[in-house]
TrEMBL record, chain B:
Domain of life: Bacteria
Biological process per Gene Ontology, one example term: tricarboxylic acid cycle
UniProt name for this protein: Succinate dehydrogenase iron-sulfur subunit
Keywords: 2Fe-2S, 3Fe-4S, 4Fe-4S, Iron, Iron-sulfur, Metal-binding, Oxidoreductase, Tricarboxylic acid cycle
Biological source species: Thermorudis peleae
Annotated ranges, domain 2Fe-2S ferredoxin-type: 1-91
EC number assigned by the record: 1.3.5.1
Organism phylogeny: Bacteria, Pseudomonadati, Thermomicrobiota, Thermomicrobia, Thermomicrobia incertae sedis
């Protein structure tokens, strides 16, 4: 089927719906989403969304900007961080006016809580900057934005999976191709502008907080079309995933006073971050947990430590951390009011992704040359406001600030530009991929290859990395790719074929893993979430630059682009 | 431990009516039912079809009937069910394939309650004020994830067209929001013949809610609001 729109948004999480809110009613816009709209993973975000409202104590956007830059180990583009910190305030107020149910202060203003890496006066002490709705802030963002979409009568194509991005020979974006999962039909969406808001790719790792659907679809498709990806080596592990399951326990647990303890009962963060302690940024805390485990101070010598909330008032645990309490009771059978909680770091957030400028335009080189008509926002994009390590709450800020900016810029773009003709047979690549998977006869199972990928990435490309481990991972990827050509799926039907969907997704995961590993192997330094045991120091002289990785006929090519530094010169990063 | 899953299957391309198939899987007692379903799909029968995403009770994708009760497959553990588990699609909706149902009628009902804040007064430059006590009134109903467990557990919904618990919960969420200005319009929708009065306070919805929302209580609050606003 053929559709024509001014603008097409792929993904119905926070970034996609925020952009849709800017376009609805002003141009002809459609949202296509692999899931139902309120199923997107924005809804799993818990603790809060930062903005220097200064409702509870003195705060300034420039302090937020500084924390973001330092949190990102100075790999952050500071022009983008300034936009993030300034516009966070407007975005929060806009959400409030749309009905977002923030927790309140007694005088009726929005309440704010502490969060990791957010400080007063350039690092002095934790500051109350995170606005929140109990511990379901992401859920309320997703609901509020979906409510606005209904109010604005946005057109949705639910359970449509993007398969291809359409570009003309001279590099202008003209639409996307998607599979209607329910019917198995191919749909060509011809449009002046496309926003990719497809989320992250945590499923490349075994232990992850990410939904099963987070397989890097948009990122991989862009990569396949020969466009570069940026800073793929920077992948965040959140310190507090439920042991073995990886389900996220919010940083808000520590924001409300929770403490990490090793097997000896010690508050070990005193050793690693004497000022911010348990509220140090996530890369620091995750590495500290692994140090403790490696030195035999995990609980019972095993590979986990405790998140201890037992000293907090029961009421705080039950009301401000209600969902977290529910997770612990449901999945561990423990009660956080009296039991310490077994946790381990869990793969959580991709700092890297599709390079964009501050208006969400996808860029292709070190000069930030944009692809006309192509936009990206949210976790799949790299603006870069998170640099080498994202601060807690800044993902939700990123979604609303840059989803909004991308939407506004797209509106201008579609009003000023004509529709470009589609390439001939626009859906041939998508059809070929699907037909190949449906008809392929081999001995390999998708789930087996995926499990091996996730195990190997966890072992060799997660919190601690070495040149040897990454080279081993590269070899493993060659083997897995080879085996992927011999997969067979059981379900050959057209209707709601999730066997097919998972096979396509595995292809995307392999692309993302390949990009991560190539970039990580090249970067011979340690910065933020990228920690090389063979190069443990940050090396600004050689590596204060963004990685760009491009797939070419000769393999992956790496190039670099400068970091934009405006207000804060790189300094040693201690907490 | 070994468990046997008895799963209702239906492929519209080959089947005229649903049937059951049994699968035996090796799982941990602390595994989720979703983990057991994944075991089947990934290693035994890739054609088994169900929705799932977040796997921890937040996205609402994997609502289904598990041993006769509406649950999220990712929020119920094997150890709480025993070695034989029957899994069927939600009742009251058209089955698309296996455990996947057509939720469009559910979302259509949701849209009728105007599930968005209505307030045409010019907004202040900062946030609108709302006291913690006012905010508390919508704490429970704003937790809804639209999974449809409540609505499809309601016997009235199985036989009669009506708003259903989830739509009313979302109506409540705005009706009781101190910032909202559409009380009359909202009450008109909720007070219609197929509105709140179809509720017979059976409490199935409250039992089914994976978020612990006091659904029946919310419906009763709406009924009382209608009575008091009219008197």
């Amino acid at each position: 089927m053929y559709h024509r729109f001014d603008a097409v948004i792929v993904g119905a999480g926070g970034a996609g719906l925020m952009a849709a809110a800017q376009l609805a009613g002003k141009c002809n816009v459609a949202v296509i989403t692999k899931l139902y709209p309120v199923r997107s993973h924005t809804g799993a975000a818990q603790g809060g969304i930062a903005a220097a409202l200064a409702n509870v104590e003195e705060d300034h956007w420039i302090w937020h900007m500084f924390d973001t830059v330092k949190g990102g180990d100075y790999l952050v583009d500071q022009d983008a961080a300034e936009v993030l910190a300034r516009e966070a305030i407007d975005a929060i107020i806009e959400l409030e006016h749309w009905g977002f149910p923030f927790n309140r202060l007694p005088d009726g203003r929005i309440d704010q809580r502490r969060f990791g890496g957010h400080t007063r006066n350039f690092g002095e002490a934790p500051v109350r900057r995170s606005c929140y709705a109990a511990d379901r802030t992401g859920h309320m963002i997703l609901q509020t934005l979906y409510q606005q979409s209904i109010k604005n009568q946005v057109v949705f194509f639910d359970e449509f999976m993007m398969l291809d991005l359409l570009l003309t020979d001279d590099g202008v974006c003209t639409g996307v191709v998607a599979l209607d999962v329910e019917t198995g039909e191919f749909h060509v969406f011809h449009s002046k502008a496309v926003l990719l808001a497809t989320g992250g790719y945590g499923r490349v790792f075994k232990v992850t907080s990410n939904a099963l659907s987070l397989t890097g679809d948009g990122v991989a498709i862009v990569f396949r079309r020969g466009l570069p990806l940026e800073d793929m080596e920077f992948y965040q592990f959140h310190p507090t995933g439920i042991y073995k399951l990886g389900i996220l326990l919010s940083e808000a647990c520590r924001g409300e006073g929770g403490i990490l303890r090793n097997g000896l009962g010690e508050r070990f963060m005193e050793r690693y971050a004497p000022t911010l302690l348990d509220l140090a940024p996530r890369d620091v805390v995750s590495r500290s947990i692994y140090h403790e485990i490696r030195e035999g101070r995990g609980v019972e010598g095993k590979d986990y430590v405790y998140l201890d909330l037992t000293h907090l008032p029961k009421e705080v645990i039950e009301t401000k951390l209600a969902d977290n309490t529910d997770f612990v009771r449901t999945y561990l059978g423990l009660d956080p009011v009296v039991d310490p909680i077994p946790i381990q770091p869990t793969a959580h957030y991709a700092m890297g992704g599709i390079p964009t400028d501050v208006d969400g335009r996808v860029t292709v080189d070190a000069q930030n040359t944009p692809v006309p008509g192509l936009y990206a926002a949210g976790e799949c994009a790299c603006v870069s406001v998170h640099g080498a390590n994202r601060l807690g709450t800044n993902s939700l800020v990123d979604l609303v600030v840059f989803g909004r900016r991308a939407g506004k810029h797209m509106l201008q773009f579609v009003q000023q530009n004509d529709l470009h003709p589609l390439p001939k047979e626009p859906d041939y690549r998508a059809r070929a991929e699907v037909e190949w998977i449906l008809e392929n006869e081999g001995q390999e199972k998708v789930a087996t290859i995926r499990a091996e990928l996730q195990e190997a990435m966890m072992a060799d490309a997660s919190v601690f990395r070495t040149g040897d481990g990454l080279r081993r991972m590269q070899d493993k990827l060659v083997e897995l790719r080879n085996r992927f050509t011999r997969i067979t799926i059981d379900d050959r039907s057209r209707t709601f074929n999730t066997d097919l969907v998972e096979a396509i997704e595995l292809g995307y995961l392999l692309d993302c893993a390949e990009a991560i590993v190539a970039c990580a192997l090249a970067r011979e330094e340690s910065r933020g979430a990228h920690y090389r045991e063979d190069f443990p120091q940050r090396d600004d002289a050689n590596w204060l630059k963004h990685t760009l990785v491009t797939r070419t006929s000769g393999g992956l090519e790496l190039s670099y682009k400068p970091v934009i530094i405006t207000r804060f010169q790189p300094k040693e990063r201690t907490y | 431990m070994q468990v046997t899953l008895r799963i209702q299957r239906f492929n519209p391309e080959t089947d005229t009516k649903p049937h059951y198939r049994e699968y035996t899987v090796e799982v941990e007692p602390t595994d989720r039912v979703l983990d057991a379903l994944n075991q089947v799909k990934w290693y035994q029968d890739g054609s088994l079809t169900y929705r799932r995403s977040c796997a921890h009770g937040i996205c609402g994708s994997d609502a289904m009937r598990i041993n006769g009760r509406n649950r999220l497959a990712c929020k119920v553990l094997i150890k709480d069910l025993g070695p034989k588990i029957t899994i069927e699609p939600l009742l009251g909706f058209k089955v698309i394939k296996d455990l996947v149902v057509d939720l469009e009628p559910f979302f259509a009902q949701y849209r009728t309650v105007k599930p968005y804040l209505v307030n045409d007064e010019p907004p202040p430059t900062r946030e609108r004020l709302q006291t913690p006590e006012e905010r508390e009134l919508i704490e429970d109903t704003s937790k809804c994830i639209l999974c449809a467990c409540c609505t499809s557990a309601c016997p009235i919904f199985w036989t009669t067209e009506w708003l259903g618990p989830a739509a009313i919960v979302n109506g409540h969420r705005f009706l009781f929001d101190s910032r909202d200005r559409a009380t009359e319009e909202r009450l008109a929708v909720l007070n219609q013949r197929f509105g709140v009065w179809r509720c017979r306070t059976i409490f199935n919805c409250t039992e089914a809610c994976p978020r612990g929302i006091q659904v029946t209580h919310a419906i009763e609050q709406v009924k009382r609001r209608i009575l008091f606003e009219q008197s």
